[in-house]
């Protein structure tokens, strides 16, 4: 897989994740309602904490030596998002037609592809991959 395609994948994931940060950090009604379903009165901690982790993941995703770490963080975050949709939120949340769920699925798949491509650069275990 070419470096250009991987770069395009990284841009796609970053656009998907970073555009949601405005809603998380500004306390937008939709974001507060979503995280209230997940965490009740502690929604602000989960909402802002998730946003901070997503921001960090997107930053390290573009640093050549830590692409693998960003991909791993995104895989974890999107797995949590997908699990939340399947167990508490529903695939369609707030009449979004499944857009949030689909975005999480797309981000997870693309992050898995990027991590596979970067597997040789993972410290300690990367040298075992051919």
Automatic annotation (TrEMBL):
Transmembrane segments: 7-25, 45-63, 68-86, 98-116
Keyword list, A-Z: Membrane, Transmembrane, Transmembrane helix
Top-rank taxon: Bacteria
Protein name per its UniProtKB record: DoxX family protein
Source organism of the structure: Polaribacter haliotis
Taxonomic lineage from the root: Bacteria, Pseudomonadati, Bacteroidota, Flavobacteriia, Flavobacteriales
